[in-house]
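Hi P.,

Sorry for the delay on this. The queue was packed all week, but I finally got your sequence through. Input first:
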Amino acid sequence: MNKNIKIAIAGLGQVGSYLYKEIRNKKKEIEIKTGKKIKIVAISAKSRNKKRKFKINKKIFYTNPLKIIKNLKPDILFEVIGQSDGISKKLVENALKNKIHVITPNKALIAKHGDQLARLAETNKVNLEFEASVAGGIPILRTIKEGLATNKISKVYGILNGTTNYILSEMENSNQTFDKVLQKAQKLGYAEPGNPKLDLNGFDAFAKIRILSALSFNTKISKANCIMEGIENIKLDDIKIASQLGLRVKLLGISEIINGNLFETVHPCLVSKNTYIGNVNGVMNAVIIEGKPVGESILQGEGAGPGPTSSSLLSDLLSILRGNTKYPFGISSQKRKSIKSFKNDNYINSLYLRFEVKDKQGVLSSITNRLAKYKISVKRIIQTPDKKNKKATIVIITHKTTEINARNCLSIFNKNKNILKFPTLIRLYN
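Then the structure:
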């Protein structure tokens, strides 16, 4: 690599703008630590005239990022546009084909097209770096690729979305409803003001768990249909009841090898207040890795926001500037294998079931009889009457059962006129 390095940044949203200022402010520090001279030669965004917290150098501004590749051929491109397809994919492909190193926080792009893009990078002997795509400022990907490279990892799981973790934590702490806490999160910048759906429905965390799987198990990115649930249906009642039981609700991403097959999922879990993961609150993320001979490794830190994300982006930059050319997923794409998926139907968990029912004789027995028919045994029952409204809340904690038994059993409750709402299901973390 030449001593004088040309850098381009495509995308000037929250992260891109913060990154631009960080590179400028830390230019001397970066140059001292790497022995390279760096210069931002191009920046790109849809609008040149949008109000930003820094002055735009119009001489280096492009509305079409593809022209940066064609006209300047920078040494390193930061893609911070954030789409899984369209201009983001096209830009990264063009950059790699032109032997330009690419750094991106775009977990949607990597989770969907990471295998193809990795092959492109390897063919052209350049880096595709995406440390910032998972868990913000936590160096989890580099830890797996380098620090734990000789370990046989069997499981990786954790809290991978700061927005949902903040909402669940704040509902418990403030005793406020989901909607009110979501509004608070939006005002604080923890959730998208317009459409926070990708955080709330579990998609964001799921894209991250797929990247973690590929790195941890040296496999191609899975395309299997897996369990993906968000937190939209979690009510304040669930938070309160869980607390009374010594539990907390957390949105977990889980990836593990079960009987030689890959199992991936994202869904709310009830975890004990006495566990490490049960005490990771606010916007914090935490990733737990289980393997041999290392045992259990835990990494925790802020997982969202421009600051933590930029920290990871800059770590990738320094790695490239120091001449570390490496495989995007730790090993050659040729050696990464496809792996069979574990059947979701066979996934085993204890269940938390909350029913809102008419307060009348025989309702509870009809529920427990139905559970028994599907081989779901009851461990604990909590019944809270609401005499004023002639209804009751029934909470049932079950022993372990399969996913298919739970799904088939619950579908029947739609037809029970004494059950006022479809029951809420939250799995207990095993």
